[in-house]
Write a structure and sequence with these properties.
Largest sheet: 5 strands, mixed
Number of strands: 10
Helix content: 40-55%
Structural class: alpha/beta
Radius of gyration: 20 Å
Distance between the termini: 13 Å
Strand content: 15-25%
């Protein structure tokens, strides 16, 4: 039997194929399948490209169960949404589509758990007393994404400009911004960012520079990290107020994985509200495989 788990994040998609023993057969990484940001046609084509990669490398084209975790969803997809995305793309006996937080929660292997994601975007989810998933955040880069790589990067870019323009505190972010944009002067930044306009993924790529500046003691960069961490903390605190008991909290996403200052601040802030607060041990795409297997078992 073959199970396919899919983690469709904001900027990339990871696919994992496992057998009935949950042993990994093959994995591939491709472009985003978020049909809101990419458009439905492009999202479907991106998915087809990854399925072709799987077939070309393994010979597997049909799956017993498929679980798609998508950053475009808040919860379980209705039949129309699933049909619009999946029909003509997958050859599978059983398919479910849910949020990327659903598969992250599955990956914890716990019933009393919450997951906080801080990658390009941000969101939090946990189980309520009825075993149902409740969520906070996840409104995208225009309406929210507090504490995300995008928000950290955007604040860092703006403070970098202010430093270069002498309208704000002097910061390493100004120097890093010029290097990031590949220009020599502040005046060249306009063309670098607007001709053509940088997309969300390109903006978020500046987040590591904010982390680098913070590690070197830059006060402005540290302030950005703590302010964005505090905003995400309030999101998670609201989630925990609706959960029946102190949960295990799993942290996932590039910001948590690569920024020690941010992660340490966040864990300390939540220490009084949870039993544990650690990085997610198993990646969400493995949670998707588990869900795909459970789907088949329940069908039988």
């Amino acid at each position: 039997m073959y199970y396919l788990g899919i983690d469709g994040g904001g900027t990339k998609t990871t696919c994992l194929v496992c057998d009935e023993n949950l042993s990994e057969i093959f994995r591939t990484v491709g472009s985003s399948i978020n049909f809101y940001s990419e458009g439905l046609d492009r999202a479907r084509e991106n998915m087809k490209a990854m399925l072709s990669d799987i077939e070309n490398n393994t010979g597997i084209s049909r799956f017993d169960g498929v679980c798609i975790g998508s950053s475009a969803l808040f919860g379980r997809a209705d039949e129309k949404t699933k049909s619009d995305f999946c029909d003509g793309v997958f050859h599978a006996d059983s398919i479910i589509m849910d949020s990327d937080l659903f598969i992250a929660l599955k990956a914890t292997g716990r019933k009393n758990a919450a997951v906080v994601i801080a990658g390009t975007g941000s969101m939090a989810a946990g189980f309520n007393g009825k075993g149902e998933i409740i969520t906070k955040g996840g409104y995208g880069y225009i309406l929210g994404d507090e504490g995300s790589g995008y928000r950290i990067a955007l604040d860092g870019i703006r403070e970098g400009v202010r430093s270069l323009d002498n309208t704000g505190m002097h910061s390493l972010l100004g120097e890093y911004l010029l290097d990031f944009a590949g220009v020599n002067t502040k005046e060249e930044l306009v063309d670098a960012f607007y001709s053509p306009e940088k997309d969300r993924k390109s903006i978020a790529a500046f987040a590591p520079f904010v982390s680098k500046a913070a590690k070197k003691g830059d006060a402005t960069a540290r302030k950005i990290l703590t302010e964005q961490g505090e905003l995400l903390y309030y999101t998670v605190k609201a989630l925990l107020s609706e959960m029946p008991e102190r949960p295990h909290i799993a942290l996932y996403g590039g910001v948590f994985q690569h920024d020690e200052i941010y992660t340490s601040y966040f864990r300390n802030a939540l220490s009084d509200f949870c039993s544990e607060c650690e990085l997610l041990e198993k990646e969400p795409v493995f949670g998707a495989v588990l869900a795909a297997k459970e789907l088949c078992e329940n069908d039988n």
